[in-house]
Amino acid sequence: MSVTRRFEFGELIQILCGQDRYFQMTSWRLPRLSGMRLLSSITVVILFAACVWPQAAQLTTAAQVLDRYPQALGGAPAIQRVQSLTVRGEMERTGMAGKANFVYRAKPFKTLFKVTRPNGTEVIAGFDGKVSWTITPKGAEIDKDTPLDAIRRDADLQYSLHQPDYFKKLELAGVTDFEGRRCYWLHGTTNWGKDNNQFYDVATGLLVGYRFEGDASKATSIALFEDYKNFGGPLMATRNTNRRGDQSQTFTYESVSYEPIDDSLFELPPAVKALVK
């Protein structure tokens, strides 16, 4: 599964250099980056990966690649069992002195993401199923730029089981080298009109990365997923790197829990409620 997004789970963010922008952590992708927001759609991206897949005959359709992917993640039942998710870790980016700490929590179509910068200041971003918001030291803000469907995709804990639902088209473009790996290349257009490229390892079936057009802009970013580990559920990529141009940002996961989370955690804070019309 992926918090790829994300974490698609995005365009590049400037938040950790002191500018109040934010990422969005996605259910199975860690933040997809947003140059406008830390909580847009990087999906970022949390990535659940898999055991090594036996070498097989070359796949010839996007459906075959997408059917193989959940099996590589551990199988559909393992993915369906995840109804709550808490990820803790560190984040570093180009130009930032030190590392930030983050906590990401998610339930189906609900997320809460808290970043503590090296200087001690905090940014909190969330999605309650309808409203995507951020609170920075400068105040609260509602995301009005990212399409709601894109935000819901990044908060979809079952995304890997029905990816085509989010695409106008998604086709196998061929086999290519991507970041040093031989990959099946899927090319598509999201339902909200954004170009999206997905790369799955030919040998393992795992998602290696994305090259995608930002949901809130036309900038192109790359997301990479590495270092898979088992935390008691589907395997997860514990190192997610997002790049745009000469800027990069890396999330490293230190712990993952599937313990239940109360719905009240995702309720809109008072400062955000005051902005909702």
User: Helix count?
Assistant: 4
Mean pLDDT score: 83
Q: What is the CATH architecture term of the domain at 15-54 and 73-162 and 216-265? A: Clam
What is the gyration radius calculated from CA atoms? Answer: 17 Å
CATH class of the domain at 15-54 and 73-162 and 216-265: Mainly Beta
Helical content, roughly?
10-25%
| Oligomer designation | single chain
Q: What is the CATH topology assignment of the domain at 15-54 and 73-162 and 216-265?
A: outer membrane lipoprotein receptor (LolB), chain A
Order of helices and strands: EHHEEEEEEHEEEEEEEH
Sheet having the most strands: 14 strands, antiparallel
Q: Which residue ranges are poorly predicted, with pLDDT under 50 across at least 5 consecutive positions?
A: 1-55
Distance between the termini: 35 Å
| Total number of strands | 14
Strand content: 35-45%
Using the alpha-carbon principal axes, give the shape.
globular
Fold and architecture overview:
The protein is mostly beta strands and 277 residues long. The protein has a domain of 180 residues: outer membrane lipoprotein receptor (LolB), chain A (Clam), CATH 2.50.20. 10% of the residues lie in helices and 39% in strands. Strands 1, 2, 3, 4, 5, 6, 7, 8, 9, 10, 11, 12, 13 and 14 form a 14-stranded antiparallel beta sheet that branches. 48% of the residues are buried. The N terminus is likely disordered.
What is the structure about, briefly put?
By secondary structure, this protein is mainly beta. The chain has a domain at 15-54 and 73-162 and 216-265: outer membrane lipoprotein receptor (LolB), chain A (Clam). It contains 4 helices and 14 strands.
